[in-house]
Amino acid sequence: MTAETSQTLDRGLRVLKLLADTDHGLTVTELSLKLGVNRTVVYRLLATLEQHALIRRDLGGRARVGLGVLRLGRQVHPLVREAAMPALRSLAEDIGATAHLTLVDGADALAVAVVEPTWTDYHVAYRAGFRHPLDRGAAGKAILAARQHPMTDPGFTLTHGELEAGACGAAAPLLGVTGVEGSVGVVMLADVVPERVGERVVEAAREVADALR
Fold first, then answer.
1. Which residues pair with 132 in a beta bridge?
2. DSSP string over 143-180
3. pLDDT tens-place string over residues 22-34
4. For residue 2, what are the contacts with CB-CB under 8 A and spacing of at least 6?
5. What is the pLDDT confidence band of residue 1, given thresholds at 50, 70 and 90?
6. N or C: which terminal CB in the chain sees fewer CB atoms within 10 Å?
7. Chain centroid to CA 44
């Protein structure tokens, strides 16, 4: 801590990060041990965070992330989109296909940024705001592959005709970006995805991940 920082705010943010990293919540005692502060301090932090709906406490007294975090999370999309645009533009122009950044939104995959190539005679029309189930389409399946293999790089995922007849897709997950679960991919009108597209998509996903770190 330095003279310019707030110890209380720092502790509150650390509480949120600790709760975000667990599926079953944490007790006051567990938070006290992890933060290295006494239980009274933790009670005060939780009470303040609870007032803003950033945490909630279940019947057993365990603290969990609250729904207020979702409202903050909605504001993340524009920031993520802005950071991803250079890599998406490069990908779209290089491959000659529509490039997209897709993030998890509940049980769906939600396209938050889309870039269409400028030099092709035709390409797939794909719009920001388009959503589909995570288990359909390359974008969602790439995200699920990263969930299933969290300690490894799953590479890229290819699909054909799952979201639109005659269209195929390639996507790679964003890896190593805390708090962001998504993928970068392309969709094109073709019978098969050209061999070089998969590795190029992986490269673009890494570029986006680097921009978000």
1. 109
2. HHHHHH-TTS----EEEESSSSTTEEEEEEE--S-TT-
3. 878 999 999 999 9
4. none
5. low
6. N
7. 31
Sheet bearing 182-189, strands edge to edge: 131-133, 108-115, 98-105, 182-189, 167-173, 157-160
Does position 7 have pLDDT exceeding 60, yes or no? yes
Rounded to 5°, the CA angle 136-167-89 comes to 95
pTM for this entry = 0.71
Bridge pairing between strands 182-189 and 98-105: antiparallel
| DSSP code of residue 210 | H
Confidence grade of residue 187 (pLDDT, cut at 50, 70, 90): very high
What is the predicted pLDDT for the residue at 2? Answer: 59
Residue 106 is encoded by which pair of tokens?
């509940």
Measured in whole angstroms, how far is the alpha carbon of residue 24 from the centre of its chain? Answer: 21
Q: What is the pLDDT of residue 171?
A: 98
* Among 190, 210, 199, CA closest to 96: 190
* Sequence-separated (6 or more) residues with CB below 8 Å from residue 65: 16, 19, 20, 54, 55, 56
